[in-house]
Amino acid sequence: xxxxxxxxxxxxxxxxxxxxxxxxxxxxxxxxxxxxxxxxxxxxxxxxxxxxxxxxxxxxxxxxxxxxxxxxxxxxxxxxxxxxxxxxxxxxxxxxxxxxxxxxxxxxxxxxxxxxxxxxxxxxxxxxxxxxxxxxxxxxxxxxxxxxxxxxxxxxxxxxxxxxxxxxxxxxxxxxxxxxxxxxxxxxxxxxxxxxxxxxxxxxxxxxxxxxxxxxxxxxxxxxxxxxxxxxxxxxxxxxxxxxxxxxxxxxxxxxxx
Length: 258
Ligand SMILES: NC(=O)c1ccc[n+]([C@@H]2O[C@H](COP(=O)([O-])OP(=O)(O)OC[C@H]3O[C@@H](n4cnc5c(N)ncnc54)[C@H](O)[C@@H]3O)[C@@H](O)[C@H]2O)c1
Description:
By secondary structure, this protein is an alpha/beta fold. The chain has one domain (10-246): NAD(P)-binding Rossmann-like Domain (Rossmann fold). The protein is 43% helix and 14% strand. A seven-stranded parallel β-sheet has the order 3-2-1-4-5-6-7, with helices on both faces. Helix 1 crosses helix 8 (222-232), helix 3 (69-83) packs parallel to helix 4 and helix 6 crosses helix 7. The longest helix is centred in the middle third of the chain and has 28 residues, at 106-133. The radius of gyration is 18 Å and the shape is globular. Nicotinamide-adenine-dinucleotide is lined by residues 14-15, 17-21, 39-41, 65-67, 92-95, 115, 119, 143, 145, 188, 190-191, 193-196.
């Protein structure tokens, strides 16, 4: 029997209070990892959310807006010294509502791009500074999306941001390989959780488009995202570097005849 035991591993997660994050946090916690949870939400709200998740391992929480690079540097420093070092980070904060190009003002367009791309640059920069200074062969994992490689209507800031993220991971994987540092990406398809599930259930047009691209005819289970990340955070994936791992039920497969 193969079991995954992450006891003794410190894993930092951004956007840790969200819908998919719930499944990831529960899965990594049940494997024994120490979780350094961060989100833009204040502590009271975050702790209220976590109290319903029945977590099995040690967790620490800090409010951290990933788009505020000064705050990201400071929180990463605090958590590193409190825990003795962070080996893995999961840059998971992101998302957006539908934003038709002509109706999205420049400020909102920038905000979506900042959150989904530069938020990940900020967390990567902070951890790379720690890892290179203390010679830690760390592992950075970004949450991208199916739509980082498959263009989607009304997501003209989000899709390019998620696409850029995939290239960023591969650039950093190359640039930091000499330090033993790895970068990988998970690219979920349409997930049955949170706002994505809500739109699917309430917007018939969106549902029709989603059903059309998923060969297996159902939404991705959030548990499946958590399982892939559990594996990616474990020694079983130590040789995986610079990869974009799709968990999308085959939605990214090019289809002849639409
Ligand atoms: N839901 C899907 O179908 C789907 C598909 C592909 C990729 N994704 C990606 O998965 C991730 C999570 O998606 P979700 O549907 O669970 O979203 P969600 O909205 O439920 O969770 C996002 C979390 O990020 C936090 N957050 C927002 N802005 C932040 C900021 N500036 N700094 C720090 N935290 C911030 C929110 O408070 C929230 O807890 C996102 O990166 C999203 O792009 C989702």
